[in-house]
Design brief:
This protein is an alpha/beta fold. The protein has 13 helices and five strands. A five-stranded parallel sheet has the order 2-1-3-4-5, with helices on both faces. InterPro entries: HAD-like_hydrolase_sf (IPR050155), HAD-like_sf (IPR036412), HAD_sf (IPR023214), PGP-like_dom2 (IPR023198), Phosphonoacetald_hydro (IPR006323).
């Protein structure tokens, strides 16, 4: 039976850093230093992209662009993007070590997938220098993929381009994009997977799209949790996700469902 050969995970908000908080405050701070007050929602909207592309996307938002022009007397330029990024990168590098805890259920799920012969790859919006901090610390805490690639490995073509995924497939020796699942917590992850032609899965709890810390999530009432999860699920589905899961622990059973579609057994059962 044909089956899923590999899962390609995102990092922050998917496998580590519940809520994807490491970059958010830094984005807010560097814009504040430039005289622009941005909202948490605006800081999160391009999440998952290469971080310099993320800054460019924020400056391209209508409200932020207008505020920038009012504050600086002219529209933003590429020099402004580079100047903001020059402040962003060292600030993030300084704080990243505190945001490397695996999200609950990830370590156990990866172990289960590997036991079933599934290879584990990963892509990220972080640069290689950022991952030099994240990867070894996450490994100490129980999570490590078989390989990972950043936009530094693809001539700075990050998400939503599919090239980081293709690098994973080559390294893992995967036979077809049809036998691969991409799991992420942002719209950029879904677009990356769709453009690579792989199955796309949005993980809801702990995601940047939901935007809640683990304490904030745990304090919600049952009704509030359902509302937040439904909102996040709808965002992923609207972006084109093939599936969503509430937590990572649901992934192995979802892959069993996808395996039926990959092998054609589900279609045959329907025809019978």
């Amino acid at each position: 039976m044909k089956k899923i050969e590999a899962v390609i995970f995102d990092w922050a908000g998917t496998t580590v850093d519940f809520g994807c908080f490491a970059p958010v405050n830094v984005f807010i701070d560097i814009f504040k230093d430039a005289g622009i007050e941005v909202t948490i929602a605006e800081a999160r909207e391009p999440m998952g992209m290469l971080k310099i592309d993320h800054i460019r996307a924020m400056l391209s938002m209508h409200r932020i662009g207008c505020l920038w022009e009012e504050q600086h007397g002219k529209p933003f330029t590429e020099s402004d993007v580079e100047r903001l990024y020059s402040k962003f990168e060292p600030a993030l590098l300084q704080s990243l070590a505190h945001f490397t805890d695996p999200i609950p259920g990830v370590v156990e799920t990866v172990k289960e997938l590997r036991a079933d012969g599934v290879k584990i790859g990963s892509t990220t919006g972080y640069t290689s220098s950022m991952m030099d901090i994240v990867v070894p610390l996450a490994k100490e805490k129980g999570y490590t993929p078989d390989c990972y690639f950043t936009a530094d490995d693809t001539d700075s073509y990050g998400r939503p381009y599919p090239f980081m995924i293709f690098k994973n497939l080559q390294a893992l020796k995967i036979s077809s994009v049809k036998n691969v699942v991409k799991v992420g917590d942002t719209i950029s992850d879904i677009k990356e997977g769709a453009q690579a032609g792989v199955w796309t899965v949005g993980v809801i709890v702990g995601s940047s799209e939901m935007g809640l810390s683990i304490n904030e999530f745990n304090k919600l009432s049952g009704e509030e949790r359902l509302k937040e999860m439904e909102r996040t699920k709808e965002a992923f589905i609207s972006a084109g996700a093939d599936f969503t899961i509430e937590t990572m622990t649901e992934l192995p059973s979802l892959i069993e469902t996808i395996n039926l579609q990959v092998s054609g057994e589900e279609r045959e059962a329907i025809e019978k």
